[in-house]
Protein: Dioxygenase
Organism: Pseudomonas emilianonis
Amino acid sequence: MNTSFPLLFVSHGAPLFAIEPGQAGPRLAQLGRELPRPDAIVILSPHWMTHGEVSVTSSTAPATLHDFGGFPDALYQLQYPAPGAPVLAAHIVEMLQDAGWKSRLDARRGLDHGAWVPLLYLAPHADIPVVQVSMPASLDTRQAWKLGQALKPLREMNVLIVASGSLTHNLYEFRSASGLGADYVKAFAAWTAKTLQAGNTEFLLDYKQHAPSAERAHPTDEHFLPLIIALGAAGEHYDIRVLEGGVSYGVLSMDSYLFSSATPQPHQGVTDHA
């Protein structure tokens, strides 16, 4: 390829997103049809946190993990039988080690719901090899950015990087009624999109100090960190496309962001509206 492959931050929502597509599902499905076909997908999710090292799935056929409880039976019947990519996984471990990260292969680990649920929409035929990379439990925003930088060379290998998290994630306020999103959710989503479009990396790395209602939007960081990983993999110059996904359960912003390479100039941004 003449240019780096685009990469994606996706809000994966609650597990029910797998069977309740809402506004975000069709958006991701359309994006999956628009993007060039990658040779593989490398995905990260906060539902696989490891201690002391970064693990990388190396199974030839990673299992579909139903790592949740109390949901309808239909959810547990879903499978995402994508093949693995052991050779690519070994290369990722080498890349990470060269960048100073402790890393190892994990041949037993499957794909958690933070990985396979959005892939149901992005790559529904499950015919593109998938490798999942864990997130270190000790990660902070600056380390997350460096992890993204370490993964950035994958974009030159026709690999789609998907950093799966949630643009807002306050489960203490989780509501059963979908309804309209809380005002703070919309304000946080708007600030994040504007700050990405402005290319203000420092504000994003210190989002708890700068974003409106940041502590309420993210009582803990782990679902925001995938966005910072994506930012690190995007490089210094990027174009950003906002895929508005609405709000689930009043508190989960389902917005996603597509990063693509740009020539050095002020950051450009477009928004896909409902």
In short: The chain has one domain: 7-272. Residues 243 and 272 are 5 Å apart (CA to CA).
